[in-house]
Design goal:
The chain is built from 19 helices and three strands. With 458 residues, it is mainly alpha-helical. The protein has a three-stranded antiparallel sheet. The longest helix has 36 residues.
């Protein structure tokens, strides 16, 4: 007779230890014996391990690309999300101040307030006024011009602080987003303009027209002379924008497929691994580390963006707020993926064939068995339903896992609370299945107790 191999001896020892542990804890032997491969099943060679590492590495590298491309796709194609991202800027103090200053500057460029008031007073003196009155009128030119200037600034500031401005801003964003594709194609009629030097501009025409109407309504007649100008203010500048413009189409396509490609590589790396539990934990840890690096990169990018934009082009406060609004979605998704990776690593460890989690699972099953026996002694039992649940326990647990995975994958937006609550609910579902199932040993004991009850009663 051929002597058993070392691996076969190790398998038998592990099985005996599991049986001994089950007898000590009072748990059915079948529930604690670790699943083992048949002795004659050939083990995978090291080539599979190398392939697993390669697939997991590729998936981890593609994960940050998937996050960025998904953000780009959502920002470029979802008008409602785009508006929801940038509409709050209309209520930010630094942005309001910047728009006010730019709007007043445009009005001053188009209308010479000192010259206008001077011409007005000169017309009065030309009608024939005494020398002293003429001198007084001349002295009023400066204060009158300053007063008109202050009035314009006040009206502009009041308008920018109003809800009307927020509505105009939102409407302009919605129109700009609809024309975003045209802007990417350098369409001159696009409301949002991308310059060849990497600048992003928003047209002031809607704001100036609204201010013009407000001034006329206040009785400032000369405001009607404010023309409708084709003026664009710069709200951001980056040397990477021309390249982003060229990659617009690729970003939209990648945003759809890249997350699935990255997930497919990670899943394939786990499936082909020699030890899938270890591969799952390793892949999760690697993914968490890569996404943490992406989070650090976003923080560095924020500092670089704020310091690289000249205050003469965009005030520092505005650039900070703008970057936070733009990168907020990416940052939130990155944190969510980190949390998800950690959760998967913990679940993979707890469900794996390792000594500590195996003992923890045995203790949990023992506790559930005690609860079931407590109920059986008091004629509280799940009966045939519990027996069926026991027979289908693997399928039911897999169903719970699949549903939890679908909730996380397709839930929008993916967030740490969604991930954690999904884990908690799934764990509770598994615990309930463990409690309501009825193993054969308990079923036979319970049936025997029921059959013997009338005899003891007699």
């Amino acid at each position: 007779m051929a002597r058993p191999s070392t691996s076969e001896l190790e398998r038998r020892i592990a099985q005996l230890e599991a049986e001994n542990e089950s007898l000590r804890l009072g748990v059915p032997v079948e529930a604690t014996v670790p699943a083992t491969e048949p002795a004659d099943r050939p083990k995978r060679g090291r080539g599979w391990a190398v392939l697993s590492v390669a697939l997991i590495t590729i998936g981890a590298v593609l994960a940050p690309v998937a996050v960025v491309s998904t953000w780009a796709k959502n920002s470029l194609t979802d008008t409602d999300r785009f508006v929801a991202t940038f509409a709050p800027l209309a209520r930010d103090h630094s942005v309001r101040q910047y728009v006010t200053d730019q709007t007043v500057a445009v009005i001053n460029e188009r209308i010479d307030i000192p010259q206008l008031t001077s011409d007005l007073f000169d017309g009065i003196t030309e009608l024939g006024t005494p020398p002293r009155a003429t001198a007084a009128i001349e002295a009023l030119k400066g204060p009158a011009a300053s007063g008109v200037q202050s009035l314009i600034e006040s009206r502009v500031a009041t308008f920018v602080e109003s809800e009307t401005f927020a509505d105009v801003w939102t409407q302009a964003l919605r129109i700009s987003h609809r024309q975003l594709v045209a802007a990417m194609a350098n369409d001159p009629d696009a409301a949002l303009r991308l310059g060849g030097d990497g600048t992003i501009g928003i047209q002031l025409a809607p704001i100036i027209d609204a201010v013009k109407s407000a001034l006329v309504d206040q009785g400032i007649g000369f405001a009607s002379q404010i023309p409708s100008v084709d003026r664009t203010i710069t709200v951001a500048q980056s040397d990477a924008l021309p390249a982003a413009q060229l990659g617009y189409g690729a970003a939209v396509v990648a945003g759809v497929w890249m997350p699935w490609v990255a997930l497919g590589f990670l899943a394939a790396g786990v499936l082909v691994a020699r030890r899938r539990s270890t591969a799952l934990i390793s892949a999760s840890i690697v993914l968490a580390v890569v996404m943490a690096a992406l989070a650090i990169g976003l923080a560095i990018a924020r500092a670089v963006f704020v310091t690289s934009v000249s205050p003469s082009i965009l005030p520092t406060g505005v650039s900070q707020v703008l970057f936070d609004r733009v990168a907020g979605g990416m940052r939130a998704t990155t944190v969510s993926v980190i949390v998800l990776a950690v959760v998967v690593a913990v679940v993979g460890w707890f469900a794996g064939p390792f000594d500590t989690p195996r003992r923890l699972r045995a203790l949990a099953r023992s506790a559930a068995g005690e609860v079931r026996r407590f109920g059986e002694e008091r004629n509280v039992t799940t009966g045939r339903v519990g027996a069926w649940i026991y027979r289908q326990r693997v399928l039911l647990r897999a169903l719970v896992a699949v549903i939890a995975a679908l909730v996380v994958v397709f839930g929008r937006p993916v967030s740490p609370p969604l991930i954690i609550w999904t884990l908690v609910i799934a764990a509770l579902a598994i615990a309930v299945l463990e409690l309501v199932q009825r193993p054969p040993a308990e079923e036979s004991v319970g049936d025997a107790g029921v059959e013997s009850a009338p005899i003891s009663a007699g």
